[in-house]
Specification:
Strand content: under 5%
Radius of gyration: 19 Å
Distance between the termini: 56 Å
Shape: elongated
Amino acid sequence: MHAGASTRTQPVPRSGGIEGNERLTAAVAVALILLLAVEGVTIVFLGQLLSVHLFVGVLLIGPVLLKLASTGYRFMRYYTHTPAYVDRGPPHIVLRAIGPVVVVSTAAVLATGIALLALGPQHRDPLLLLHKASFVVWIAFTGVHVLGHLRGLGAARDELVAAGHRLPGRSARASALALSLAAGVALALALVPLFGAWLHGR
């Protein structure tokens, strides 16, 4: 069952409740899709855009952590039997099945990328192979994940356009997204000195 009558009659929490969680998750997902599109272009033109690839790759860590937090929160509330989350129901069984693979492969791509950046090109083996292999797994499963959640991205539109009713917690959700992006940028800027070994090594 979708949102039950009991959940509609309850007062909306200051955080926006389950709909607020959905809007935050969708907004972060849209930001990630845009950043990943940029990262995809850098892969095609890696020779010319390696510095951008490194910068955006590190920047992604901030919004990825927020996405994991927002989806993890919904997971926790569902499995602790919070009525509104139970009434909304779980994702499709296929999306639930591939969820752990998406999370693990995402962590592997980011972790091996940071390790490569920190250790430098002289220590690329076997990390570079692991980075590429985890990326192949990630792109396959994340592609299915994104397609399965395309309809849910409309929640991001509802958060932005005037036609969408304003839920409590809108400013907090916007701040969370902005802070995740700012944290990613700050981390990328802090690691810029490590880019040189890879840029000059090529």
